[in-house]
Design brief:
alpha+beta, Multidrug-efflux Transporter Regulator, Chain: A, Domain 2, 2 domains, two-stranded antiparallel sheet, 7 strands, elongated
Amino acid sequence: MTILEAAKLLNITRQAVYVAVKQKKIRALKCAYQWKISNSDVLEYIKNRYSRKTSVINGELVFDKSKGEYSVTETACLLHVPNNFVYYSIRSRGLKHKRKAAAYVIHIDDIKEFSQRMGISVNL
């Protein structure tokens, strides 16, 4: 398949496919003037693609649901607000959080307390 076909299948831009090829995350061969990618290489990329839901730091999950830890996006979904509102609330409105590497981790108890303070219903 071509770069454009791979991009459509992966639901990413053409440029993102070129970057993945350059970083050797997707194997591709250049035939004449066009890159060719095999279906198996695209499937391998999908299998190994980075996901925040499964990312690990020092052997433990970044967002461990068994401990009640949520990401900004998941918190925004629970509160029915945009992601930017959650980021703003972290910076200025006192939404408690902790950092794990570059990620904001918000505990469910902090989400409940914040929603009561702000008068927002939580979807649990």
